[in-house]
Design a protein that fits this description.
- The protein contains five helices and seven strands, in the order ββααααβββββα.
- By secondary structure, it is an alpha+beta fold.
- The mean pLDDT is 95.
Length: 156
């Protein structure tokens, strides 16, 4: 999508399913190092194999990947003002070699006190390539309405 959805375009029955994204060993190691997840759960291969059967991705990494898929799909491009809230429930682990996709469904919306923006709530299911639910969450976003006027247009 070149441009995302306006507030008015969200409604009953709206859904979107993103493309799948791979969760790689290299990606997990980079996330763990960058964010200081320095615990045997993520850094000790023997411990990981014995305790978890392999390299598990931190849940927050998978949540970031899921939100990255929303951005990559362009759903909020030039329409999203900001992300207000996420309410993740981590259901199943995701491992190196898995892939995840984000299945999104409209839940609710309301206008704010300013007519050029509204609040949109969407339900998300982050699924592995096996169809297993890894994370369920609601996302609350402030989204532009069609009344929003771009700064460039105002200058003309």
């Amino acid at each position: 999508m070149d441009e995302g959805l306006y507030f008015e375009e969200y409604g009953e029955g709206w859904t979107h399913e993103t493309r799948p994204a791979p969760i790689t060993d290299e990606g997990i190691r980079a996330f763990v190092a960058l964010h200081g997840f320095n615990t045997p759960t993520y850094t000790d291969p023997k411990y990981m194999k014995m305790s978890y059967g392999g390299r598990m991705a931190p849940g927050l990494m998978v949540l970031c990947a899921a939100e990255g898929l929303v951005l990559d799909a362009g759903l909020t491009r030039r329409r999203g003002i900001f992300l207000v809230e996420l309410t993740p429930k981590f259901k199943k682990p995701v491992y190196a070699g898995d892939s995840v996709l984000n299945r999104i469904r409209f839940k609710s919306k309301r206008l704010t006190s300013k007519p050029d923006r509204g609040i949109v709530v969407t339900e998300h299911e982050v699924l592995t390539q096996k169809g297993e639910l890894a994370i369920a969450y609601d996302a609350v976003r402030m989204i532009r309405t069609r009344e929003f006027i771009e700064a460039e247009a105002q200058a003309d």
